[in-house]
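User: two proteins, same treatment. go.

Assistant:
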Amino acid sequence: MTYRHRLPEELRWRAIGRLEAGQSQIEVDRWLNVSPSVVHRLWQQFLTTDSAFRRFSQGRPTATTSADDRYLSLWARRNRTATPTQLRSSLATATGRLVSTSTVLRRLHEGGLYARQPAICMPLTSRHRRVRLREPGTRYHPSNIRERDAYGGDNVCVWGGISLNGHTNLHVFPRGTVNAQDYRNGILDAYVRPYAGAIGDDFLLQDDSARPHRARIVDDYLQQEKNQSIK
């Protein structure tokens, strides 16, 4: 039989007697059918206190005092939105005592304080239900219809040119996209070339690094028109 909880006082004294008679701790723990650590602690206790009685303790000391518990409860009631981490920091600042957030939660639960759970919805009264429900046969009445405009998902692409002295009109690409040929014919030839002629030799074209702007046909067109381009 294995004694899982504690040895009876009679067996404890009999084990001490066997050890004093010269038996080894291994022989005694085999006789008691317990782990070697049990016999070792029993023998060390006898050598230290000259007693084999089991020592009772009050358990692990609490991490907080009654004053700390009252402080946590009062602070939580005054600050309803405070988190356990904030309560822990407040207690450490006030008393210098460091405790875990789990300890704070346990103390609050012992005082009947729990986290507030927001309501999912406001409970409807009979009056609310009557107002919300429509009368039979009025499903398509204008007062019961809410119009919604869903966007079709098409793309819009526009181009505009600006300078120190003015700007061009916005150009809208019908397909919503632009390639190098569209940029050359629809922008450079239609807008940039006339605008550059109006500005004169000081005209300087600056665009971004979009793919249509860096295409070969665009570079050839700019060289042909002898326009300076910043890339």
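Protein 2:
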Amino acid sequence: MSDRPRVGRLQDLKFKRIPRNEVSSEAAGSSSSVGPNRRRISRRTPVESDDNDFGPGLRDEATRRLLKRRAPRNPVPPGERVVEKQTRFSSNRVISRNDLINLSVHAEKIAKVLKKKPQPSAADWQIVRGSLYQIPFENVDQKTVHNSGAMRELIKLEDGNFEFDLPEDISLDAQMILKRWRNGDYDPHLLRGIDLNQTVVPGRGGRPAKKRARHYKLEEDYNWKRDDNVEGNHDLFVGEWWPLQICALRDGAHGDMEAGISGNNIIGAISVIVSGGALYPDLDELERVLYCGTMGVEAPINYADDPEEREHGDRIPSPNTKYLLLAFEKATKIRLFRSSKSPSPYAPAEGLRYDGLYTIRAYEILDKKNAVYRFEMIREPNQAAIRGDPEDPGCKPNRVELAQWHNIKKTLKGER
């Protein structure tokens, strides 16, 4: 009779939390009085750790990660910009035998035309142009360039030691290709050295995203980035073309990814882009350009009065306009680019084209209140002809460059 109350008390212990490998003193005392023929009754409950974010008693790292992946993600607040995809256009290329064959075919075509007597015809020069248009987009490396004979033929076009007259645009195109090859840059992609971040703006109220934005930036580890803070041609050739302004920044042609004026406080403006102007249009006469500076800025409180009479509230020239004024004083030779955004009849079909060096000869104030200046820029003599006439066989950008750029835009549009 005395054993029944003890067993009842032990059964009640199953609802209590008992540490592992321990028995309550009450259970231990009661079991000690059990006779030798009776088995001691003890109940142990599993150890339970303190509750955490993943539930009680879960110590397995794999289980914790699994539950974390299954946990619902926090919804993106409306209006927050989220990076969706990053695209790098430069890649590790593999050169095949077919690439060597393709480049060798171009070299043979050029060599065959140059051997014609007494001189090649217009149709022959078109064959050379076709090869020069294709060569920059061939998949090559240093070994392929030399083994194919393409380097040898391009050097002949660069030197121009022939008994006949060599078209100027052919010589320039050959020099553009050789410049990149000599620098060790064989990547054929138009956007080499550039990363593209595509971002999405989520819709409000659970609506799907409708607006996407693209942000281009230079690769941090790109080895062929050139300094742009150099006066003069800076090893550029008339007619060089870029699909985007950031490509001109990559090659050291223009020093800003968005602004149309680039320069420093020592020699003033170094390069400008003719894109039509914002408030006052640029007037483009090919050899003579009337280029407008940017809108003036508000004068600081302690701004000293300049020699010219300035009424209270008048703006002062912007930093970019000051670059142009300093370039006028220093007679700096400025690189001039024409953009496809310009309404000028000499603008390229796409992107930007380098059209040579210009010098500021005079300027005028169009709007004194807003400090808007217009500068007369005259093209320097003894330069290659501007390659902007669509009827000219050497017009830039050429048909292959435009086709390559349109294919890239189609690919990017498909990713949207």
